[in-house]
Write a structure and sequence with these properties.
Rossmann fold, alpha/beta, 6 strands
């Protein structure tokens, strides 16, 4: 076996099921519990979910949001959508290179790429040129094939049943 305890690997959490962001936050808590520092960069999200609000009480866990407070419509992307995605990727690239974080989560990066807000190759380049000790998590539906190839861990979340299909709207503290 190869001892990779000081080497950062790449995780891909994708699929149509619930829980990708929640799993990434859970990994961040694990890193912090072991004395590390984590950064979660959220693409396409701008309002504070329960997880984001909780992070304000946790040392060594930082969240930066680069979305607006409204839904991003892939059929009607705005200049602001592109600008915020670029700002998020710039922050991510800097954080990945810095060596400051044991874990960097790029939440909804898969969706930002699938919508065409960010070039797939630029994201891959940022990940490949990260500090060697930085673990990375990519979340969101519709991950491109290249992200599957890049990742060391791939987990696909599959929706089997969800209350939304019965007309139950998202609930504060559970879905957000």
């Amino acid at each position: 076996m190869i001892n990779m305890s000081s080497m950062g690997l790449v995780h891909l959490y994708t699929g149509d099921g619930k829980g990708k962001t929640t799993a990434a936050f859970g990994l961040a808590l694990r890193v912090i519990g072991r004395g590390g520092k984590a950064l979660i960069i959220q693409f396409l999200k701008g309002s504070p979910s329960g997880e984001v609000l909780a992070t304000r009480m946790i040392p060594n866990l930082e969240v930066k949001q680069f979305g607006t407070n409204k839904f991003v419509d892939p059929e009607n992307l705005t200049p602001e959508d592109y600008a915020r995605a670029r700002q998020g990727l710039e922050a991510a690239t800097e954080a990945l290179k810095s060596g400051e974080y044991r874990l960097v989560v790029l939440d909804e990066i898969n969706v930002a790429v699938s919508f065409g807000l960010l070039p797939e190759e630029t994201v891959i380049d940022a990940i490949k040129h990260r500090d060697k000790g930085t673990e990375v998590v990519l979340t969101g539906r519709n991950a491109p094939k290249s992200f599957f190839e890049l990742a060391d861990y791939v987990t696909e979340f599959k929706e089997i049943k969800h209350p939304f299909s019965r007309g139950i709207l998202a609930r504060e503290g559970i879905e957000y």
